[in-house]
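Sequence, please.
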């Protein structure tokens, strides 16, 4: 039994980009009323695959924490929000995730329940979400180090896909990444020299006001192409 379900959806646009940009504000009012939704974040994305000072105005994302699978499916398949996406977007990708491990905080809480972490197949792909709120006085120093951070994950063995995401430009940033298996994540975290150096500098220089790291089992992925 899945005690908590997490979805992260990516919407790509070839047209209607200004409409999509406005949803970062307007969709807030809709999501507050969705049954079974306990936590959500409307997210912009960075240009390219990793961190970037430049936004990607063709791609947006929404992260949701649900009571159960039925609530998630009802939102993704039947809600007004999804109807609008199908009329405006070029495509969408929905990832269905089960939290396995999470530490840290997002807006003062950890939204991911991992108390019921059960055995999982460690040979299958794993999803990772990392996010942080930067200390204002450390912004320039942090963003000067971003190219090195992006290169570290780009060259990592076992990473299948990754995208920079975030709530506020420059200050609140995150990444969503998919890895071949748990071993590839562990190797990157503890054996990649560039990554280890960045983590060490992050702690020493106190770049983050708040941060969170979460690991998920990928239960399913659904892709829809609308060709708008």
């Amino acid at each position: 039994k899945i005690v908590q379900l997490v979805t992260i959806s990516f919407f790509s646009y070839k047209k209607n980009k200004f409409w999509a940009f406005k949803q970062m504000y307007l969709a807030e009012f809709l999501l507050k009323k969705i049954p079974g939704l306990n936590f959500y974040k409307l997210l912009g994305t960075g240009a390219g695959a990793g961190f970037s000072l430049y936004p990607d105005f063709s791609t947006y994302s929404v992260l949701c924490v649900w009571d159960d699978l039925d609530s998630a499916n009802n939102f993704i398949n039947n809600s007004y929000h999804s109807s609008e996406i199908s009329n405006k977007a070029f495509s969408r990708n929905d990832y269905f995730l089960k939290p396995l491990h999470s530490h840290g905080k997002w807006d003062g809480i950890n939204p991911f329940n991992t108390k019921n972490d059960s055995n999982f197949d460690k040979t299958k792909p794993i999803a990772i979400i990392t996010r942080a709120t930067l200390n204002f006085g450390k912004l320039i120093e942090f963003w000067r180090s971003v190219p090195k951070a992006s290169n570290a994950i780009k060259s990592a063995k076992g990473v299948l896909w990754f995208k920079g995401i975030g709530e506020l430009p420059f200050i609140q940033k995150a990444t969503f990444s998919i890895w071949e298996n748990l071993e590839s994540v562990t190797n990157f975290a503890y054996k990649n020299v560039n990554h280890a150096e960045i983590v060490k500098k992050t702690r020493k220089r106190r770049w983050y006001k708040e941060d969170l790291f979460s690991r998920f089992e990928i239960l399913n992925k659904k892709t829809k192409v609308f060709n708008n």
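The two ends are 37 Å apart (CA to CA).
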